[in-house]
């Protein structure tokens, strides 16, 4: 079980709301969501002897971010929502590019998942996505050679902004458990910042990039040169973004 995983509670599994002052209509709605097998999301486990999960709900234009506790480990846990399943619900201008990005990630031995507003809307049918909503992605890297995937994420982000006014945000997962904002990691590499914030299932900590990635100086220099070149050619039809 990792952050962003999906939990499908079964009829015999109990749960409690952390916030005891929620409107009855909200708790009843979440009860119905669980009964209809809409998933809960695994979040950071900062409480003893329980499993903490989260969900979101909208009522009368108000968005509720809800935390629940489970007294036992959930029986059914799956990976997050695959971005591929979400493609038909993305802005039309970005759908083909999103599929090409997924294909590229697959070639680079990475899995691509979605969470946040787009995933919440996919599961609930409620209007979570606004004009200002980011597309939150979880990129699970299955090797330590992440420079190519960071370049592809940056390129996809620039293209999504250009053609759909959509910002790409989210995390890259290393070593199966270390989640780092891919935008923050790219920024840290570009501007020689030695540490980044790393989130695991149970902890949040600053970690040295050299230790986290094991990159040498040549790797850094190649990444910086490549990312700078991609940025400078983003508006050109023959540039890096033409791949999408």
Separate helix tally: 8
| Percent of residues in beta strands | 25-35%
Secondary structure: helix percent: 25-40%
Write down the Rg.
19 Å
Q: Distance between the terminal alpha carbons, to the nearest Å?
A: 33 Å
Q: H/E order of the elements?
A: EEHEEEEEHHEHEHEEHEEHH
Shape: globular
Mean pLDDT: 90
Q: What class would the helix/strand composition place it in?
A: alpha+beta
Unreliable spans are: 233-243
Largest sheet: 6 strands, antiparallel
Order of strands across the widest beta sheet?
2-5-4-3-1-6
List the helices and strands and how they pair.
Elements: E1 6-7, E2 16-17, H1 24-35, E3 40-42, E4 51-59, E5 62-70, E6 77-78, E7 81-82, H2 83-86, H3 92-107, E8 110-115, H4 117-124, E9 135-141, H5 147-164, E10 168-174, E11 178-181, H6 182-190, E12 195-199, E13 204-208, H7 209-213, H8 217-232
Parallel strand pairs: 9-10
Antiparallel strand pairs: 1-3, 1-6, 2-5, 3-4, 4-5, 7-8, 8-9, 10-11, 12-13
Helix pairs in contact: 3-5, 5-8
Can you characterise this structure?
This protein is α+β, with helices and mostly antiparallel strands. 36% of the residues lie in helices and 26% in strands. The chain has eight helices and 13 strands. It has a six-stranded antiparallel β-sheet, with helices on one face. It has a five-stranded mixed β-sheet with strand order 7-8-9-10-11. Strand 9, helix 5 and strand 10 form a beta-alpha-beta unit. Helix 3 runs antiparallel to helix 5. The longest helix has 18 residues. The radius of gyration is 19 Å and the shape is globular. The two termini are 33 Å apart.
